[in-house]
Amino acid sequence: xxxxxxKRLALAAAVMAAMGxxxxxxxxSSLALFSGTEAGAANTFAAGTVTVGLGTGTSxxxxxxxxxxxxxxxxxxxxxxxxxxxxxxxxxxGNVNAWLGVDVNITNGSTALYDGTANGLQLYLKDANSTxxxxxxxxxxxxxxxxxxxxxxxxxxxxxxxxxxxxTAAPGGTAATFTLDYALPIASGNTYQGGSTTVTLTFHAxxxxxxxxxxxxxxxxxxxxxxxxxxxx
Length: 233
Prior knowledge:
Distance between the termini: 48 Å
Radius of gyration: 24 Å
Oligomer: single chain
Strand order of the largest sheet: 2-5-6-13-8-9-10-11
Order of helices and strands: EEEEEEEEEEEEEE
Number of strands: 14
Helix content: under 10%
Shape: elongated
Strand content: 25-35%
Structural class: mainly beta
Number of domains: 1
Protein backbone atom coordinates (compact mmCIF):
# COMPACT_ATOMS: atom_id res chain seq x y z
CA UNK A 1 0.00 0.00 0.00
CA UNK A 2 1.49 3.31 -1.04
CA UNK A 3 2.12 5.97 1.59
CA UNK A 4 3.21 9.22 0.02
CA UNK A 5 5.32 11.76 1.91
CA UNK A 6 5.90 15.20 0.43
CA LYS A 7 8.20 17.41 2.45
CA ARG A 8 9.75 20.75 1.61
CA LEU A 9 12.34 22.50 3.72
CA ALA A 10 12.55 26.22 3.10
CA LEU A 11 15.21 28.28 4.80
CA ALA A 12 14.18 31.91 5.20
CA ALA A 13 16.80 34.51 6.08
CA ALA A 14 15.54 37.09 8.57
CA VAL A 15 17.23 40.48 8.35
CA MET A 16 17.20 42.91 11.26
CA ALA A 17 18.90 46.29 11.63
CA ALA A 18 20.66 47.06 14.87
CA MET A 19 22.41 50.16 16.09
CA GLY A 20 26.18 50.25 16.23
CA UNK A 21 28.26 53.40 16.03
CA UNK A 22 31.75 54.22 14.89
CA UNK A 23 33.08 57.76 14.77
CA UNK A 24 36.22 59.86 14.60
CA UNK A 25 36.73 63.20 16.31
CA UNK A 26 39.28 65.72 15.06
CA UNK A 27 39.61 69.02 16.95
CA UNK A 28 40.28 72.47 15.52
CA SER A 29 43.73 74.06 15.73
CA SER A 30 45.02 77.65 15.66
CA LEU A 31 48.32 79.12 14.47
CA ALA A 32 50.39 81.65 16.55
CA LEU A 33 51.30 85.14 15.32
CA PHE A 34 49.44 84.91 12.09
CA SER A 35 46.00 83.91 13.19
CA GLY A 36 44.10 81.27 11.35
CA THR A 37 41.70 78.42 11.84
CA GLU A 38 41.36 74.92 10.54
CA ALA A 39 37.96 73.30 10.43
CA GLY A 40 37.67 70.01 12.22
CA ALA A 41 36.89 66.97 10.12
CA ALA A 42 33.24 65.98 9.94
CA ASN A 43 32.16 63.38 12.48
CA THR A 44 30.71 60.27 10.84
CA PHE A 45 28.52 57.72 12.56
CA ALA A 46 27.54 54.44 10.90
CA ALA A 47 24.95 51.90 12.00
CA GLY A 48 26.08 48.32 12.20
CA THR A 49 24.34 45.50 10.35
CA VAL A 50 22.84 42.27 11.61
CA THR A 51 21.97 39.99 8.70
CA VAL A 52 21.69 36.28 8.03
CA GLY A 53 22.28 34.81 4.60
CA LEU A 54 22.58 31.46 2.87
CA GLY A 55 25.91 30.17 1.75
CA THR A 56 24.45 29.48 -1.69
CA GLY A 57 21.17 30.51 -3.26
CA THR A 58 18.23 32.07 -1.46
CA SER A 59 16.37 29.04 -0.13
CA UNK A 60 16.79 25.35 0.39
CA UNK A 61 14.01 22.95 -0.50
CA UNK A 62 14.15 19.28 0.34
CA UNK A 63 11.34 17.13 -1.06
CA UNK A 64 10.88 13.46 -0.21
CA UNK A 65 8.16 11.63 -2.10
CA UNK A 66 6.54 8.22 -1.68
CA UNK A 67 7.83 7.63 1.82
CA UNK A 68 6.68 4.32 3.30
CA UNK A 69 6.68 2.98 6.88
CA UNK A 70 10.20 2.01 7.82
CA UNK A 71 11.83 4.57 5.50
CA UNK A 72 14.33 7.03 6.96
CA UNK A 73 17.32 9.21 6.06
CA UNK A 74 20.95 8.29 6.63
CA UNK A 75 21.36 10.11 9.95
CA UNK A 76 18.18 8.84 11.60
CA UNK A 77 18.63 6.30 14.41
CA UNK A 78 15.79 4.08 13.15
CA UNK A 79 14.51 2.77 9.84
CA UNK A 80 16.14 1.93 6.54
CA UNK A 81 18.55 4.91 6.55
CA UNK A 82 18.56 4.80 2.75
CA UNK A 83 17.10 8.26 2.01
CA UNK A 84 19.16 11.45 1.81
CA UNK A 85 19.41 13.84 4.73
CA UNK A 86 18.55 17.50 4.14
CA UNK A 87 21.76 19.49 4.58
CA UNK A 88 22.33 23.20 4.14
CA UNK A 89 24.64 26.01 5.06
CA UNK A 90 23.79 29.34 6.70
CA UNK A 91 26.08 32.27 7.40
CA UNK A 92 25.90 35.29 9.68
CA UNK A 93 26.86 38.18 7.41
CA GLY A 94 26.51 41.21 9.69
CA ASN A 95 29.37 43.33 11.00
CA VAL A 96 28.48 43.46 14.70
CA ASN A 97 28.58 40.50 17.06
CA ALA A 98 25.23 38.75 17.39
CA TRP A 99 23.15 36.05 19.01
CA LEU A 100 21.71 33.57 16.51
CA GLY A 101 18.48 31.62 16.72
CA VAL A 102 16.37 29.29 14.61
CA ASP A 103 12.58 28.87 14.46
CA VAL A 104 10.96 25.60 13.39
CA ASN A 105 7.55 25.66 11.71
CA ILE A 106 5.54 22.50 11.05
CA THR A 107 2.52 22.47 8.73
CA ASN A 108 0.58 19.49 7.40
CA GLY A 109 -1.31 18.86 4.21
CA SER A 110 -4.90 17.64 4.14
CA THR A 111 -3.68 14.42 5.73
CA ALA A 112 -1.19 14.96 8.55
CA LEU A 113 2.07 13.05 8.39
CA TYR A 114 3.46 14.77 11.48
CA ASP A 115 1.30 14.61 14.63
CA GLY A 116 3.84 14.59 17.46
CA THR A 117 3.28 10.92 18.28
CA ALA A 118 5.74 8.03 18.09
CA ASN A 119 3.96 6.64 15.00
CA GLY A 120 3.98 9.74 12.80
CA LEU A 121 6.89 11.43 11.05
CA GLN A 122 9.98 11.82 13.28
CA LEU A 123 12.45 14.70 12.92
CA TYR A 124 16.10 15.05 13.97
CA LEU A 125 17.85 18.42 13.59
CA LYS A 126 21.48 19.07 14.50
CA ASP A 127 24.37 21.29 13.47
CA ALA A 128 28.00 20.53 12.63
CA ASN A 129 28.91 20.87 16.32
CA SER A 130 26.56 17.93 17.05
CA THR A 131 24.18 20.28 18.86
CA UNK A 132 20.72 18.71 18.83
CA UNK A 133 17.73 20.98 18.21
CA UNK A 134 15.16 18.26 17.50
CA UNK A 135 15.33 14.60 18.38
CA UNK A 136 13.08 11.57 18.83
CA UNK A 137 13.02 8.40 20.89
CA UNK A 138 10.50 6.61 18.66
CA UNK A 139 9.04 4.04 19.08
CA UNK A 140 8.92 5.16 22.73
CA UNK A 141 7.96 8.81 22.11
CA UNK A 142 7.78 11.33 19.30
CA UNK A 143 9.88 14.36 18.28
CA UNK A 144 10.95 16.74 21.05
CA UNK A 145 12.94 19.94 21.57
CA UNK A 146 14.45 21.24 24.82
CA UNK A 147 12.91 24.28 26.51
CA UNK A 148 15.14 26.80 28.29
CA UNK A 149 15.13 24.68 31.41
CA UNK A 150 16.36 21.63 29.51
CA UNK A 151 13.06 19.73 29.64
CA UNK A 152 12.26 17.60 26.59
CA UNK A 153 9.03 19.03 25.15
CA UNK A 154 6.86 17.57 22.41
CA UNK A 155 7.34 19.50 19.16
CA UNK A 156 3.93 20.89 18.17
CA UNK A 157 2.62 21.82 14.77
CA UNK A 158 2.93 25.53 14.11
CA UNK A 159 6.03 27.50 15.11
CA UNK A 160 8.51 26.69 17.86
CA UNK A 161 10.60 29.85 18.12
CA UNK A 162 14.05 30.88 19.31
CA UNK A 163 16.13 27.74 19.56
CA UNK A 164 19.53 29.14 20.51
CA UNK A 165 22.41 28.55 18.07
CA UNK A 166 25.31 30.13 20.02
CA UNK A 167 26.13 30.94 23.63
CA THR A 168 29.16 33.04 22.67
CA ALA A 169 28.55 36.17 20.59
CA ALA A 170 29.06 35.37 16.91
CA PRO A 171 31.24 37.69 14.82
CA GLY A 172 30.48 38.46 11.18
CA GLY A 173 31.31 35.57 8.89
CA THR A 174 30.23 32.88 11.36
CA ALA A 175 28.92 29.89 9.38
CA ALA A 176 26.96 26.84 10.42
CA THR A 177 25.88 23.64 8.68
CA PHE A 178 22.53 22.15 9.66
CA THR A 179 21.25 18.65 8.94
CA LEU A 180 17.63 17.52 9.14
CA ASP A 181 17.03 13.77 9.27
CA TYR A 182 13.65 12.09 9.31
CA ALA A 183 11.96 8.72 9.73
CA LEU A 184 8.52 7.21 9.31
CA PRO A 185 8.32 4.38 11.90
CA ILE A 186 7.52 0.89 10.72
CA ALA A 187 4.50 0.94 13.05
CA SER A 188 2.83 3.75 11.09
CA GLY A 189 -0.57 2.64 9.87
CA ASN A 190 -3.10 3.62 7.27
CA THR A 191 -3.83 6.84 9.16
CA TYR A 192 -0.78 8.39 7.49
CA GLN A 193 -1.36 7.13 3.96
CA GLY A 194 -1.12 10.02 1.50
CA GLY A 195 0.04 12.38 4.24
CA SER A 196 2.40 15.32 3.79
CA THR A 197 4.29 17.71 6.04
CA THR A 198 6.27 20.88 5.38
CA VAL A 199 9.09 21.85 7.74
CA THR A 200 10.30 25.45 7.50
CA LEU A 201 13.38 26.70 9.34
CA THR A 202 13.89 30.43 9.81
CA PHE A 203 17.24 31.72 11.05
CA HIS A 204 17.56 35.11 12.72
CA ALA A 205 20.13 37.23 14.49
CA UNK A 206 20.14 40.11 16.96
CA UNK A 207 23.00 42.25 18.20
CA UNK A 208 24.79 40.98 21.30
CA UNK A 209 26.12 44.43 22.22
CA UNK A 210 24.13 45.74 25.20
CA UNK A 211 22.16 42.48 25.24
CA UNK A 212 23.22 39.62 27.46
CA UNK A 213 21.53 36.24 27.22
CA UNK A 214 18.98 35.51 29.96
CA UNK A 215 20.36 33.43 32.83
CA UNK A 216 18.32 30.43 31.67
CA UNK A 217 19.87 30.46 28.19
CA UNK A 218 23.07 28.54 28.80
CA UNK A 219 22.92 25.72 26.26
CA UNK A 220 22.94 25.81 22.46
CA UNK A 221 20.01 23.94 20.96
CA UNK A 222 17.67 24.80 23.84
CA UNK A 223 14.88 27.34 23.48
CA UNK A 224 15.82 30.86 24.56
CA UNK A 225 12.72 33.07 24.72
CA UNK A 226 12.85 36.84 25.03
CA UNK A 227 13.06 38.13 28.59
CA UNK A 228 13.62 41.36 30.50
CA UNK A 229 16.70 42.99 29.01
CA UNK A 230 16.81 40.61 26.04
CA UNK A 231 14.79 40.65 22.83
CA UNK A 232 15.20 38.90 19.49
CA UNK A 233 14.07 41.95 17.51
